[in-house]
Each structure stands twice: as structure tokens, then as C-alpha cells.
Amino acid sequence: MSEPSPTSFSARATDFVNRVGASVVLLFAALAFDLVYVTSAALDDVGGRFLDFGVFPGIFAMAGCALWARKRAAVASMTGALALVAFTMVIHYYRVPAYSSVLANLSITEVVAGVEMVYFTARRVRPRVAFCVIATLVVATMAAVFGRFPRYIYSSAGITQSLVFGFLLLVAAVLTGLIGRPQHATDPQREERVRRLHRINDLAMGQWPLLVALGLGLFLEFAQAYNVGLRSFPILFCSMLAAVAAIYSRREPARASLVVAGLILLAGVVMPFLRLGYGYEPGTGIPPAQVVAGFGVVVNLVRVTVLPKAWPRIAALSVAVAVSTLLNFERPGFRLLTDPQTIGLGAVLGSLLLGIAIAIGLFLRSRDSEHQQVVKAAVSDAQTAERMALARELHDVVAHHVTGIVVQAQAARMTGEKNPQLAYEAMARIEDAGVEALAAMRRLVRSMRGDAPAGSGEFNEQATTDLAADLRRLVESGNHRLPTSLHLDLPPHLPQEVGRSALRLVQESLTNIGKHAADATEALVHAEVAADELHLRVMDDGREPARRPAGGSGGYGLVGMRERVALLHGRLSAGRGPDGGWRVEAWLPLEPNGETNG
């Protein structure tokens, strides 16, 4: 069920994240950061040499528990809580330097691992047990925050921030886990929540470079916030909202650009009143996460909107950036930037960044257009090849049988009066040739209707205008040899092209389940119409196959599905679900959708 390896680095990276899981990638990224940071601190001349390496056992233990939590959430989380307390005692006793990140005295790996353990516990463990496990993790975290080098704690400004940020992380992890909890398959509210989560996941995975840049910007702001205190929280909150809007700009760039512009302007106006001083350095007067958010919004705006319609929103962003820079470049206090040379330099740098963002957006717009042309050309070539194959079939098979019928009929007419027995034998041969010609014609008709190729199974359904009936017949055929549940909420009539494509997507997905899903016991087909879109989901409860399926796998099934969806300007998501099964989801617009111009 894998498609050919993508050629671009971005596509390969996205495919890698989909296969291993975003939580694993995030955990290893945090671990890599801590390895580099702690190693550099352990080899310097400050403090005891190599003493900093004492935090590594605790960091690796928490990372291991977070990976274990993907399978055994409760046990792994309790083990992680015990490990956190145990290594806190070791750090306190041997006076090993503790490193702070989002939470005081906790490394970034320990924070990420704790959040992931809370998420998996809230998602998979029974409510009462989950409450006890999460409470234990919270107590262990508090012990680590207050138990490592306590003589510095009461004078540290980071403890208050740790309580606030820790509470926000806890609430976010618990809510996200509760939303994704498995419930009854026919629960409409749960289906809607899952659909929204998958849309968010597809939105995020499609622009991971922006996510990385926003993450770095927010990390810098968190680090600066420790030097100021809670006064910096309004600016930090604006930066987080701007980051969310920048990610959403892939889908609604016009609205997101105005939101980011408003947040930059709001933060710029409020910042002088907060008197943050030099402890919260925003660089050119704008926090780094907001700079990245504005850059990403411009890229997505130019990517999907023609420039004449994009200019007013780009101008609004530019005005917000200029006002914020003039108000906050001179620190601290209310000191308006008036130096012409500095203003000119800032204008040049801002114009340069804006030009780079516009150039990247135009490049991505051109690449998207080329990709659509390539898909259309590939489909056209495939249709041409199919027509040639049908012509060969007509000439080699059907015409052959029909010619035989004509010859036999002529012979019977010529010899029938003289030798009736010969005429009788010729009629038998005509009958056999007619049966063979009829069978060949039926194969041809099935091919022309777009059914599965020969060898894929005995069931080759024809697409009608009743998609629900077609899907029921497809499932009842049992071609994929797996019990399948149907959840359909479809109107009586759908556009024929949408119904045909939907039927092919479900058929290919079920065929793949029969070939690839190891130890699967059940499959689910879900189809509904919501918000002028046909939403399809096909999933199983199997695991990744340990060997190649019988007959091998060509790997072109997902390619064909992506091409069908692309021709209808829809969206497709295919990959392994959190519980191990394979999941294919598609959203097909019910109305024709041309190229977006604004």
C-alpha cells in the first residue's frame, strides 16, 4: 500500500513523518537539541567538567517511556513519573546542573516526553485510571521543578511561568487526547471531531518547514519570557495566535493575513505599556514568531491568490510591521524610532524579506500549476493508452469471433441444401463463436466502464448514479475477504463523476486491505456529504505486514487514487493510523472547482 518514493525533499520528509508519527519526530528533535546543548555545556570550563552529563540518564529514561507510551500508556506513564522523581533525587544529591526549557529545571526532552505521555494516557486509558496516572505525572513534574537545586527556586522568575505554561500544556494534551479517544463508529459527533483532526493533521504535514520555523521562534520567545515574568505573557499569547493563523493560512490566506496583521499591530501597541525592558528582546521591534508568521502568511497568500488581489492584504501586513517597528525598536519605554538611517535600513531589510516571501509564493504557485498539468497529461496519456488497448481488443478478439461467425454462416448456407449434417455442425460452431464473442464483449464493456483490471477479482461492478447502492454491492461481494461495516449518509443522487471516482477509491482501498492488512479482523467504510463535500474514509484494524503480499505489490494504487482526487480538486490522506491500521480518507467537492484566484 505504498506509493513510489517522492522526488522532492519536502515530499520525502512529509512521507517520513507520516510513517513514523509526528510524536516520534518531535521527541527525537527535542532529544537531539538536548544532546548538543548538554554536551557543549559539559565540555566547557564552567563548573565541574563532565558533571553536566549526569542529566543524560534521566533524559533518555523519559524519552524511552514516551516511546513506550504509544503501546502501553498507563504503565509507561507511571514508569516515567517514577523515573522523573528518582533522577530528580540524583540530580539534587550530586548537584548536577539542571537545564530549563518551557518549564523550569526540566530539559526540553523531559517536557515533550511528559506531554506525549499525558496525551496517550488521556486518549487510550480508562477515565478513572487516566486521572490517577496524569495526576501522578503532574506531582512528579512539580517535584522535579521544585526539587532540583531548591536554593535557587524561590528567587527564580521562571517558577511562576512554569506553573502557567505547565497548566496550558496539560490542558492542551488532555483535550487533544480526549478528542481522539476511540468511541462507537456510528457516533456522528465523534466522526466530525475525527474529520476535523485529520484536516488539521493534513494542513500541518503539508507545510512542515513553516512549522519548524514557528517552533524555533516560539522557543526563543519562551526563553526570553523567563527573564521578564508574567508581563510578557500578552505578547507571547499574540505570538502563539499568530503562529496558528499562519498555519491556517494555507486554507484561508486572505483571512489569516488580516488576523496576523492585527496581532502584530496589537502586540506592537501594547508592548511599550508592559515595560518589558531589555529582558524581552524582539529584535527589530517584532517578536520572532510573529516575523515568521507574517513571512509564512505572505508566502501562502501569493501561492493561492493572484497578485492584484493579494496586494491590499500584503500592504496591511506591511503597515502593521512598520508601526510595531517604529514603536518598539528603541528600548525600553516609549521611545519612537526617528533616526532616518535606521529607518532606511529597516525598510530595506523589510522589503528584502517581503520580496523573498513573494518569490517563494510565486515559485510554489508555479510548481502547483505544473503539478496539475503533469497530472492532467498523465491522465490523458493513460486514456489514450486505454483507447489503443480497446482498439486492439476489438480487432484481435471480437472481430476475430465475428468474422468466424460470418464465415461459418456462409458455409452453412452453401452446404445446407446438399448436406444438412454439415449445416448442423456449422450451426454448433457458430454458437460457440457467438458465446466467445459475447464473453469478449462483456469484458470490453467492463473495461470501458472503468472496472478493476483482469485478475483483481470476480466482482466488477458498474458505476451508477446511486453511490450508496454501489457501495453496498461492492461490500456484499466480499472480494476483499474481510467483514466490513458500512456507515453511509448520502443523498439519492450525486454527480456521476464524483460517484464513479468515489466508488473506485473505495474499491481500491478494500482491495489493498485484502492484499496488505495483516491480521485484520474488520474494515470500515464511511461515506457522508457535509459542507458541499463528499467525505470518504476506509480503514482496517490490521498491522503493518511483515512480508510482501502474494504476487507482489506494484505500489501504484495510491498514485491512481491521488490522480482521481486531484482531477476533482479534492484532498486525499492515506497512511497508518495511531492504532496500527491503514486509513484512507478523501474529500471530494460536489461542485466544479476551478483554479483559485482569490
TrEMBL record:
Pfam family, any one: HATPase_c
GO annotations of cellular component type: membrane
Protein name in UniProt: histidine kinase
Record-linked InterPro entries: HATPase_C_sf, HATPase_dom, Sensor_HK_TwoCompSys, Sig_transdc_His_kin_sub3_dim/P
Source organism per UniProt: Amycolatopsis sulphurea
Residue span(s) of domain Signal transduction histidine kinase subgroup 3 dimerisation and phosphoacceptor: 386-450
Phylogenetic lineage: Bacteria, Bacillati, Actinomycetota, Actinomycetes, Pseudonocardiales
Recorded superkingdom: Bacteria
GO molecular function: ATP binding; phosphorelay sensor kinase activity; protein dimerization activity
